[in-house]
Amino acid sequence: MLAYVIRRVFFGLVVLAGASVITFTIAYVAPADPAVAVAGAKADPQTLATIRRQLGLDQPLYIQYARYADRALHGDLGRSYIRREAVTDLILSRFPATAMLAISAIVLSLILGVAAGTLAAAYRGRALDNWLLVAALALLSMPVFWLGTLLLIAGGLYLRWFPLGGFDGSLSLVLPTLTLALGAAAYYSRILHASLADALDQDYVRTALGKGRSRRAAILRHAMPNAILPLVTIAGLDFAGLLSGVVLTETVFNWPGLGRLAFEAVFNLDLPLIMGTVLFSAALVVAANLIVDLLYAWLDPRIDLGGGQE
Amino acid sequence: MRANRNPTMKFRLNFMEAAGAAMVLGLAIAAVFAPALAPHDPVRAVAATFGDPAPPSLAFPLGTDQLGRDVLSRIIYGARISLAVGVAAMALTLAIGVTIGLAAGFLGGAVDSLLMRFTDVMLTMPALLLAMALVTVLQPGVLTVLLVIGLVSWTQVARVVRAEALAVSRRDFVVAARALGAAPARLILRHVAPNVMPIIVVMAALGTSGTLLLDAGLSFLTLGVPPPTPSWGRMIEESTAYFRTAPWLAIFPGLAILYAVMGFNLLGHGYLRRRGRRASTL
Amino acid sequence: MAPTCAIFPRWRRLRRFRPFPIRVAAALLAALILPACHAGSAPPIFPPGAQVLQLASLDDVPTLDPAAGYDVDSWMFEQMLFDTLIRYSDAGVDLVPDLATAWTAAPDSAVFTFHLRRDARFTNGRLVTSADFKFAIERVLDPKTRSKGMEYYRGIAGAADFAAGRAKSVAGIETPDPWTIVFRLNAPDPIFPHKLAMPFAAAVPREVVARYGEDFSRHVVGSGPFMLRQWIGGQRIVLVRNPGYFVKGAPRLDGVIEAIGVSEDLQWFRFEAGAIDLSAIPPAVFPYVVKTPRLNALTMRIVTMTTRYLGMNCRMPPFTDVRVRRALNYAVNKRKLVAVINGRGIPANGVLPPSLPGYDPTLPGYPYDPARARTLLAQAGYAHGFAATLWMPADQTMMILGQSVQQDLALVGVNLRLKPVAFAPFLEAIRQPQTVPLFFSGWEADFPDPANFLEVLLSRAQWGANNDSWFYDPRFDTLLAEAAPIANPARRYAIYREAQRIAVANAPWVFLYFPVTWEIRQPWMHGLVLNPMRPARLDRVWLSAHPPAK
After folding, report:
1. Do C234 and A93 make contact, defined as CB atoms within 8 angstroms?
2. Chain C CA closest to residue A79
3. A33 lies within 8 A of chain B by CB
4. What CATH code is carried by the domain that includes residue C29?
5. So what's the ipTM on this one?
């Protein structure tokens, strides 16, 4: 088990290194001079040259990367070109807002998704199942920024129940949460529906039904425990994604989270901040993968710890 | 197969596909015959509503925007760029994903681990952020947008194709053919490709709905196909300043996106259902 | 506000009843999630009844460090926190004392002497002396600071040696006593005092900067009318009154709170609810505000010292031909452009905006005349038009304006391809020779002087820097050189006026418009004065009694 954990952590670090190399390369080949980002639009060539030297931009790519990696390994992700603040400070200052949204969205989407998925499975082949499928597909077909805008128009502008975006007390959390949760719930309901349907076809469930168990009991007591596992896996990975910020939803609602920060970083080609936000979200995904895999290994001893396929 | 045991279900599933096909056909017609269908030029000012969009009226059924352009005509023309980018990006996604997936699954060994590790790296990176960075670096344009969408969305395809290829290549007849010294390329073409074809068809449909959404998202972030080419995502983005007084500017292009994506989703999911496969395996 | 409630009374009663379960669910959810964030907002900063100005803005303030900030948001707060030797008057662009009581310029405009007041203190209690100004400017000149203001102080004698590390201090800044500071320049520069009115040159306490280094922005200590109390990234920034401010009775406010992450639309809603005292006017409600007398009376507007233009690369065909450049000037409908931005601009007649000293009201500019444009194009050999690419920053307003220009030019046969790019690559591209044929740009004045436009944007010396249209006219450059050392305003402006006529006749730009800033304030907010070049100062603002926010 310990060897397995060490192996997985090592591979996680390799993946992170790969992600950092790709990001660094993209930002490096950008047709923009970071010195201009630092010195501003009006700077004269002399100032730019000075700043380029200051930032080590006159060095070859691999040296710049090595320097970056060395500092990153010591916990220093550099300073934003635009804001001049430490990237770690910036990320940590935006993290609480993003985390609030992520937690509420994942909770709500699981509640809605499990309810809809269970209902659909219980009414398999009947009208409700069809309607739930169509509703889920419609939600999955909506651009999230449009759904957000609609909710803003409906809930904020006409009904005036909720603030029109911004980070302003608990009510401001509702619309962005709904925006994120509706799409995810649709997805989760389909996954749960599928795995419940599989489980219902299994012999032990058929046996239970044959013994006179109600359909409801068969679903909830017998099928659900197995069927919920894949959903938990996917939701776990989604949660990591949510925690690293959601650009579109945060943009629609002016939510001061990591997504907006990353958007800002890309728009300004603020290299240290781009690197920081990408690495942060990659690290979250790697960690979530690791946790999910370890949970599986712990729950199900049959899983091959030797690595192998998948 | 379950569908055959249940005639009503069979009808329903076919209905999903039929509805999807009809919707996609409608989209294609709008795209191809846009000049004939659209009542106005989508780019020129046809009403003097500068800075003050006008609500739907008889002359302009979906209203006009802040540059005096007809919203209906822009939506019809928008089908062109959406369909073109969506389908081309999907083709690129499939091309990259299938190549990598087949190579990894069939060749195995070091090639497999290397490719899959690379896929892991790509999966770890936030796709939208990566796409934004790439578009910013390469500078917006039709070609850039579809290239970038292809580059960030192939990972899922590669994984699925690899799994399929792995399964097929372990079957007896393929193992035997291999033992007899058949060339890998020939094996892939004769045995593996036909077996993974159905799954590729599904991924093409579902993949297009994904690329359409990504394209719309990039446009919304002002990183899509540059104006004045009418694009639905950008129409929504341009309307944000007016969402309080002119919500129709945001609502109609959004419905268009919903329609297009839903068409492809229905096609893909309908097919999956008829074949008895579950979307969750994708 | 009242009108909406009065029109739909029954509807209101209904909605009171219906949302209940949703609100309960939201509150429950929030109770699960919110505890972490509640910790930050626990103790109230201001006692009840305090005069606190409520503001809102979409973007966070980039920085509060005077050496780093170079944008409206940063400068607005830096002005409240720090003092310079001299500054602009509230409404105008004439220089008035700030921490200096008097100053003199040598006849050749190469030596400037300032005398400081002796009662100004940093908020850590220490007196502000001439050494603090010397330190501030040396900090800006130090390459390690990576300041955007470096170039403005390079003309001081010894600045180059200091920046290169050859000298420990700038020889040309002398502090004979704590209340006197002398600047010696390499060459005459009549506008040098304006550079000392930029926040870059504000006094900063060396001991605090040394303690926090690059994090000074988060721990600013200055001598200005306000002090930083709280700054939560992306959420809000709170300033409180500096009780030791050297101007008696100022500021009148007890504090300023700016909520961050509030879009213009949201600002408007909060304004209507009485929750903020000053707001931007979003495009969607602009016509309504202008038409409603009650609201129109509360608006404030000012023509900023800014020019928006379409640069044409004079070294790339077809823009090498002056007839083509003039044709484009006639072809773009500037009134329509201004209409698209809700009339918040004045069609431009040339390079220099109306609020700038030296502005030439008699300059006719180029009226909208597509027929004349077509004739000129035909004369230049483009009877059937041509295609070109217009580069612009990928910004919502810019792209709308770009599409408006694209519509206009299509009518004279010029087909534009729009190329929106991120701001950084945009800046990079327009500085390269033979790269960008046509681009959207604008310039905000750094000093109220024609040189800041004509010399910076159109002189040969600025090729590859800020002269992005690669314009060159020898007579124009000669006139600029002639005007530069002249301190007498009348003589100086007369020469610049002639230079501007040459530039307009050669049409290196399509002169688009001079933007007008609009704000709306609550009836209970008093004493606010907008300035054409700087963010408004808040030290004389006060609030009369007003109803609590809804």
Report:
1. yes
2. C214
3. no
4. 3.40.190.10
5. 0.85
Residue to substitute from B130, B137, B156, B212, interface A, most A β-carbons within 10 A: B137
The 10s digit of each residue's pLDDT in C71-127 is 888 999 999 999 999 999 998 899 999 999 999 999 888 999 999 999 999 999 999
The parts of chain B modelled with pLDDT lower than 70 are: 1-14, 184, 276-282
Q: What is the pTM of this model?
A: 0.83
Q: Does C275 touch chain A (CB under 8 A)?
A: no
Same domain, C283 and C204: no
In Å, how far are C102, C368, C377, C378, C409 from C372, measured between CA atoms?
Answer: 55, 9, 9, 10, 13
**Chain B residues inside the 8 Å CB shell of A258:** none
The CB-side HSE value for A238 (13 A sphere, CA atoms) comes to 22
Which residue segment(s) compose the domain that C175 sits in? Answer: 83-212
Instruction: Provide the pLDDT for residue A186.
Output: 92
With a CB cutoff of 8 Å and minimum separation 6, the contacts of C131 are: C175, C178, C206
- The residue of chain B nearest to residue A17, with distances taken between CA atoms, is B121
Together in a domain, C380 and C411:
yes
| pLDDT single digits (tens) C353-377 | 999 999 999 999 999 999 999 999 9
Q: What is the pLDDT of residue A81?
A: 82
Boundary (domain end) residue, out of C187, C212, C237: C212
Q: Of A140, A157, A194, which is closest to B280 when you measure between CB atoms?
A: A194
Interface test with A, best of B261, B280, B281, B282 (most A CBs within 10 A): B280
Phi, psi (deg, nearest 5) at residue C216: -55, -35
Say yes or no: C128 and C93 in one domain. yes
Please answer yes or no on whether C284 and B139 come within 8 Å at the CB atom: no
Residue type, C296: N
Asked if residue C176 and residue C259 are part of one domain, the reply reads no
Q: Smallest Cα–Cα separation from C283: which of B187, B32, B246, B115?
A: B246
Give me the number of domains chain C comprises.
3
C342 touches chain B (CB under 8 A): yes
Identify the pLDDT of residue C20. Answer: 38
Close Cβ partners of B266 (under 8 Å, ≥ 6 residues apart): A137, B16, B17, B19, B20, B23
Q: Does C263 touch chain A (CB under 8 A)?
A: yes
Stretches where chain C sits below pLDDT 50 are 1-25, 27-29, 31-32, 34-42
For A37, the closest chain C residue by CA position comes to: C424
Cross-chain Cβ contact A142/B240 below 8 Å: no
